Amino acid sequence: MARHEGCDQPMVNDCLNQLANFPLEIINTAVSGHNTADLLARLDQEILSQAQVDFICILIGTNDLASHKQIHLPTFEANLKQIIKKLARIYEPKQITLISPPPVDESKQRHRTNRRIREYSTCMKQIAFQENCRFIDLYKTFTENPKPTEELLIGSLNDGLHFGKAGYELLAQTILEALGSFGN
């Protein structure tokens, strides 16, 4: 959510604004390389102190599951629950959407596997259900897309993890679909 990929702003913001048929005001507080512990540490000051918004999307987990800096699943689960608990002081659960990590191209990515991504995504889905939040399975969205997953994962780093325009367009489209069902 934080990568610019050649844009003047985070590429996801650019794609959301291009694809939306309604005006959007986007506050993107994403920080590259952060995990759930980092988000929890900065949540009060950098996110909850902002003006209240209509919809919160949290794409997290990719760094939690990385073998070289792994936050183990029970701690990941506890961190996610704490994040939601803090957000729930201000927001209704249906305003909060957890977004799973996308798949990786394992031929290029050394520290992440799709098996582990599915494990963490399953955990996220269960927590979203338990807490009455929304959930976007980005892994499933990427792998079920007609474009090959490897093509969606090509970004300026071309490391099998950080995706480019095609991946951000798919992410933005998926978020907009969730926004469209916001009243449901």
Helix and strand topology:
Elements: H1 11-19, H2 36-48, E1 56-59, H3 73-87, E2 96-99, H4 114-130, E3 134-136, H5 138-143, H6 149-152, H7 165-180
Parallel strand pairs: 1-2, 2-3
Helix pairs in contact: 1-7, 2-3, 3-4
Walk me through this protein's architecture.
The chain is mainly alpha-helical and 184 residues long. The protein has one domain (11-19, 34-45, 53-180): SGNH hydrolase (Rossmann fold, 3-Layer(aba) Sandwich), CATH 3.40.50. Helix content is 43%, strand content 6%. It has seven helices and three strands; from the N terminus they run ααβαβαβααα. It has helices at residues 11-19, 36-48, 73-87, 114-130, 138-143, 149-152, 165-180; strands at residues 56-59, 96-99, 134-136. The protein has a three-stranded parallel beta sheet with strand order 1-2-3, with helices on both faces. α3 (73-87) links the parallel β1 (56-59) and β2. The mean pLDDT is 93.
Task: Summarize it.
Helices cover 43% and strands 6% of the residues. It has 184 residues and is mostly helical. The mean pLDDT is 93.
